[in-house]
Design brief:
The protein is of the alpha+beta class. It has eleven helices and ten strands. Helix 4 packs parallel to helix 7 and helix 5 runs antiparallel to helix 6.
């Protein structure tokens, strides 16, 4: 198997890396995350109009470039290394993937706007009692004339505070936990019956709990076929987990790099920390965790078009490997930096928080180890 990037893929990665090096200094992240809106809309537009990256992995017929998982992996990795706040995984990978799968005029119209950088979408699926199972949704959607009426709550919907549209899961039949009966709905977060409770997250982004209280939607709000959304949601969620894991690898590489630089400058007992053999061994272990995470993410990315069981095993293996690396590399990086590693004034502290947020999203290491084990036994 050839693991080398094509010329076009290398150009995409290098162009994004150059842009972020100039447009995303740490001061810009600090201003947006601590004192601003939690993202930078001008960067979002530039990713679309100047670099054309929001459509890199979306259908050509809608204005995209028709790429695939490798392009997403490269983009997410560079955004992670720059600690960019923009909702690439949330909007392009997750919502874009769902819209691509369901098709239809409504979905295609929103996809075109996302590719052009004119819209942000967020996916609401998590609920307080559902843990990590999409089928456990308790939010309900019942027929209301020609349309629908939704009731329930979605928790921790990242990017929701500034999203133009929300995609939410709701049960149109069966009971929570059933494989059938789950549906997808597209809604305007400003419509009556929809209430957002926004808050900042530990990594400086913004999320919201979404309350649905007799929210009335038209017939066009239903995406795809009623009651048949679960396999599609699971497929796109695996794509999102692979992209998040790729972003984590970018974060890990930056934490390792900063640690190597710091230990090469910091002096104790008449020599630099990097000259001490025990610390050299520690950083080698950190490097090995980063490379293991990268390899697992690459395998998951190349398995996204495989049959569902194989795809899910590869993705869960990657997420578990990445989660373990995030804790090992992050904790050791902070320890080798000393007390200042925990401060928000040092980039390392922010990278560690982002790594921990990624580890928890869509389930942490324990969840994905259990999922992998269950799939291996099936």
């Amino acid at each position: 198997m050839d693991f080398d990037l094509t010329g076009e893929q290398a150009q995409l990665r290098d162009a994004l890396r150059r842009y972020l090096a100039e447009a995303y200094p740490f001061a810009a992240h600090d201003a947006a995350s601590r004192h601003g809106a939690g993202w930078r809309p001008e960067v979002w537009r530039a990713l679309a109009t100047e670099l054309g990256l929001l459509g890199a992995a979306l259908p050509e017929g809608l204005g995209g470039q028709g790429g695939g998982g490798v392009e997403v992996m490269l983009i997410a990795g560079e955004l992670g290394a720059a600690l960019a706040l923009e909702p690439y995984v949330e909007t392009v990978v997750t919502c874009g993937g769902l819209l691509r799968e369901v098709g239809g005029a409504v979905a295609h119209d929103l996809l075109r706007r996302i590719i052009a950088g004119e819209a942000v979408a967020a996916f609401g699926w998590a609920e307080p009692t559902a843990r990590h199972a999409f089928a456990d949704a308790a939010t309900t959607a019942v027929r209301d004339g020609d349309g629908w009426r939704l009731n329930g709550m979605k928790a921790l919907v990242t990017a929701a505070p500034w999203a133009d549209r929300l995609i939410v899961t709701a049960r149109t039949g069966g009971a929570p936990g059933d494989d059938e009966g789950l549906s997808l709905f597209l809604l305007d977060p400003g419509r009556p019956g929809v209430t957002l409770k926004p808050y900042p997250t530990i990594d400086g982004r913004r999320a919201a709990d979404v309350l649905l209280d007799d929210a009335r939607l038209g017939a066009e709000a239903l995406l795809g076929v009623a009651g048949r959304a679960l396999p599609m949601v699971e497929k796109v969620a695996d794509e999102a987990v692979a992209a998040l894991s790729a972003e984590a690898v970018g974060v890990l590489r930056r934490m390792l790099r900063d640690t190597v630089v710091h230990t090469g400058r910091r002096r104790q007992f008449g020599k630099t920390l990097s000259e001490m053999q025990a610390l050299q061994h520690r950083m080698v272990d950190m490097f090995m965790h980063v490379e293991a995470a990268h390899s697992a993410v690459l395998l998951a990315t190349l398995s996204l078009d495989a049959p569902a069981p194989r795809r899910a095993r590869a993705v869960s293996a990657a997420k578990a490997t990445v989660g373990r690396a995030c804790r090992f590399v992050g904790q050791n990086a902070i320890q080798l930096h000393g007390g200042m590693g925990m401060t928000d004034e040092l980039p390392l502290g922010r990278y560690f928080k982002r790594a921990m947020a990624i580890d928890a999203e869509f389930g942490g290491e324990d969840h994905h180890l259990q999922r992998y084990g269950a799939l291996a036994e099936a």
